[in-house]
Amino acid sequence: MKNLIENTVEFVKEKLEGAEAGHDWFHIERVWKLSKKIAETEECNREVVELAALLHDIADPKFHNGDETIALKVSREFLESQNASEDVVEKVLFIIKNISFKNRGEVPKDLPIELKIVQDADRIDAIGAIGIGRTFNFGGFKNNLMYDPNIAPKLNMSKDEYKKSNGTTINHFYEKLLLLKDLMNTEKGKEIAEERHDFMMKFLDQFYKEWNVD
């Protein structure tokens, strides 16, 4: 297992060199560490958890014209080159396919614990201080407005609407980030998310005070 994990780390680092800062190697590393932390509190296949955490954003669809098949193809080819068992490959690909927030309405019920762990870790990295930084970084990357009081958040967007959305960065808090706390799967995930959610609420309070020059 050790060599496979080490080789995966090197592969991902090389593949994501120059990636947008919110979806780069450092994002992967944080999700990997969070996944291992949560996995300590659950009965699970640690190898599948670590591999899925490392490969989950190897080809994020938002940077590949919405194509959700590239990550699956790249991950399969890499894992097969490492002689990973077909069982492990299938489990890792299932997590990559079903982890995304935008796909939450399409996933099967009774999800494996390994997916729940990596999904919690990925969502935790989208909230709190890191989440705020990543959100503003991506908003700047897309040249979205930071905030406009006249543009309301779009709640309950369909998958296609969410993929095409170019709303303000502050609206993204209401369209996604503030929803994540209640979507956690594991007890450890819920515990970590609670603290980060509270931090975002305090940030928004301060943001509006400064925006309105109160």
From TrEMBL:
Gene3D superfamilies linked to this entry: 1.20.58.1910, HD-domain/PDEase-like
Alphabetical list of SMART domains matching this protein: HDc
Pfam families (UniProt xref): HD
Highest taxon in the source lineage: Bacteria
Domain HD: 24-127
Protein name: HD domain-containing protein
Organism from which the protein derives: Chryseobacterium geocarposphaerae
Lineage, broadest ranks: Bacteria, Pseudomonadati, Bacteroidota, Flavobacteriia, Flavobacteriales
